[in-house]
Design goal:
A: alpha/beta, Rossmann fold, 7 helices, globular, B: four-stranded antiparallel sheet, 16 strands, 47% helix
Amino acid sequence: MSLLELKGVSKIYGELKALDNVNIHVDKGEWVAIMGPSGSGKSTMMNIIGCMDKPSSGEVLLDGVDISKESSKALTDIRRDKIGLVFQQFHMVNYLTAVENVMVSQYYHSMPDEEEALEALGRVGLRERAKHLPSQLSGGEQQRVCVARALINHPELILADEPTGNLDEANENIVLDLFRQLHDEGTTLIVVTHDPEVAEAAQRTIVLEHGRVAREVINENFGK
Amino acid sequence: MSKRKMFLRMITASLLRRRSRMLIALLSIAIGATILSGLVTIYYDVPRQMGAQFRSYGANMILVAKEGESLTTDTLQDALGAIPEDQLVGATPYRYVRLDMTSRQQSFTTAGTDFTEVQKTSPYFSVEGEYPQAENEILLGKEIADTIGAKVGSYVQLTWRPVVTAHENASDDWVPNARLSGSAEGFNAGIVVVEATLDEEGKIATLDIDASSQTPEIGGLVETDRNFISRFIGQTLPVSLGEDVDAVSGATISSQAVVDALNNARSTEKGSAAAERSGYFNVTGILVTGGEEESYIYMNLEDLEGLTNDKLLDVAELSVSANAEQLEEYAKAIDGSDAGITARLVKRVTRSETAVLGKLQALVFLVTVVVLLLTMICVSTTMMAVVSERRREIGLRKALGAPDNSIRAEFLGEGMFLGGLGGLLGGLLGFVFAQVVSVNVFGSSITFQPLLLPITLLVSMLIAALSCLLPIKRAVAIDPALVLKGE
């Protein structure tokens, strides 16, 4: 059963076709990597899937709802309820502690629950760092906090934008292990990357070139 | 944890952990609030402060008796009941009479008054020496002192003689103790002159006859005939020849002239000798004002009453610390009361007071508004800088699903929290500021207005909130997608 489906999606900025008639679908529980060189339309696609932008044409079905026609307010609600975001630059609120950063996500979603937030930090191995400010955490630790923040509201879809782009190999492995765990639990993962190693961790890789889907690769080694 | 608790936690964390930027905003609000509460305090205190200052220019209300009524210490007290005690700076009674200075054979206008009150209603009086304190002490106007060559420590004798107006009928002069003089035509158109004094009962006590114009051996005998003269003693005027006294034999015409002269007799002086009162007074001070006061003698009302033997007042000068409308009101109340007194305002003083106060208050108001505007600009600029500094964070919050209202609430919350804190700080500092200004400019302290603190707090929060409107608009417009672009 598909969670996400893009049907003939195009995004045009003036003369530039950032996305050109893209058709993809992602099943519930699937782990998909999106690859492509700079300017291939990765970011535009990411924005559209992340409910932060609308396509110029085409349909985007998320959990059966066409989000391409929704107002930006409705998109905010959908993003909050269904999507967990992980960014390359980590992006934490720099004056809030690790646990508070996780709670911010709860705050906008439903109810802040410190216990639950601490548990989520425990899952990423940072329970004892909960009271630290971002400036007191390493890059890897910050990204793990962001993963905890992304999963705290049990989203249908975790959308990660170059999650390991700024991490060393050890931390990259930790984050990928976390993704594996989430995948095992049935969470749908879409990871945008240009790191082949990260892409290989996924079940399937969609390669974008010049705003089009160039090819799709099934990772036969997945799970081995 | 409730949402509200998390909201407060985020706001306080933002303010406390990002101190330097917020400190500038806080400082500008605090300074604005300080000026606001300080100037408002002064604004409301200026009339009181300046009122006290203005009172140094003298009385602003004059009380006199109504037509046919008289002003006394008692009726004055009744009239003063119309003015609240705390607004009445002073009320000085004045009684003006002419007193003769025996040594100079001159008379001077003398004011009986209350020197304690004089110092309140006429604080510009400058006295060389001291104000009289004890009985029989006086203040001499400089002009008089120069004229008579008196100095502090000199003694002068002052005499009061009642003013006697010329009576239409001679008989009105025939009062007890009167000195009388009269004349009448006698024999051969000669004039006979008599001088007489009356005793305490108004009867003739002495009689002196000048009949030198009469025939010496006939009519002239009226001068010397003891029998004739003694018959007049003890008689009450008018006398008649043949009933009260008998004529000197052979000199009926001259005798009739003596009787006529007596029946014409008028008082020879303004006051009778017995009604005069005098005393010796010690000059304790010389009054220098540069005005007409320098030609007066001032003495205690009690001393003057001792001379005149009555308790009348001519006028009372009041210094009232009130604005023009209040003064009108008090004047009306005094006119309406049954004390028989009418009140007049010294318009020259009250008008200029009102005008100056109005201008001062307008100035203070203007400065306050300008300061508040400057505060708003400063806070707005700071918050604008804060928004651009926190673009990424705002984008992140929106990416995490923060609705626009939530972003608005967070910034407004921070702004109002700052406003409240700055307002509290400024409210307290403002009192100190007002106190310093008041002491240095007006030379008196002010009272703390507790109501001003919550008002300052609210105004500061409002100002902060208004200052946040534009920055918030900008914050809301931030695109959440910026967090994805790996900037």
